[in-house]
Amino acid sequence: MNDETKRCACPGCHIPIDPQQPFERDGKAYCCQACAEHHPRGEPCTNLDCHCDEEATNGGEAGVGPIA
């Protein structure tokens, strides 16, 4: 991977972004729709090796995750 490869903006996600098909929200790029929506209902990342949805739903980033 080169230095110009962007990573998903989801906290805890390590997936590179497909420059041909990024998911964007608030000026940031994400690897999938679930990450772009901050996993509101615990939807998993589309990459099976990534578990960023667990971090998001367990209070990873302030203001991100399900609304109680």
- Principal-axes geometry comes out as globular
H-E order: EEHH
Would you tell me the overall average pLDDT? 81
Rg, Å, rounded? 11 Å
The biggest beta sheet reads: 2 strands, antiparallel
Number of strands: 2
Number of helices: 2
Structural class estimated from helices and strands: little secondary structure
Runs in which pLDDT lies below 50 for 5 or more consecutive residues are 61-68
Q: Percent range for helical residues?
A: 10-25%
Read across the widest sheet, the strand sequence of neighbours is 1-2
Strand content: 5-15%
Distance between the termini: 39 Å
Could you write a compact summary of the structure shown?
This protein is largely without helices or strands and 68 residues long. The protein is built from two helices and two strands, in the order ββαα.
Please characterize this protein's 3D structure.
It comes from Pseudomonas piscis. This is Metallothionein. Keywords: Metal-binding, Metal-thiolate cluster. By secondary structure, the chain is mostly loops. It contains two helices and two strands. A two-stranded antiparallel ribbon has the order 1-2. The protein is globular, with a radius of gyration of 11 Å. The N and C termini lie far apart (39 Å). The C terminus is likely disordered.
Attribute tags:
68 residues; little secondary structure; two-stranded antiparallel sheet; 2 helices; disordered C terminus
Describe the secondary structure blueprint for this structure.
Layout: E1 23-25, E2 28-30, H1 33-36, H2 52-57
Antiparallel strand pairs: 1-2
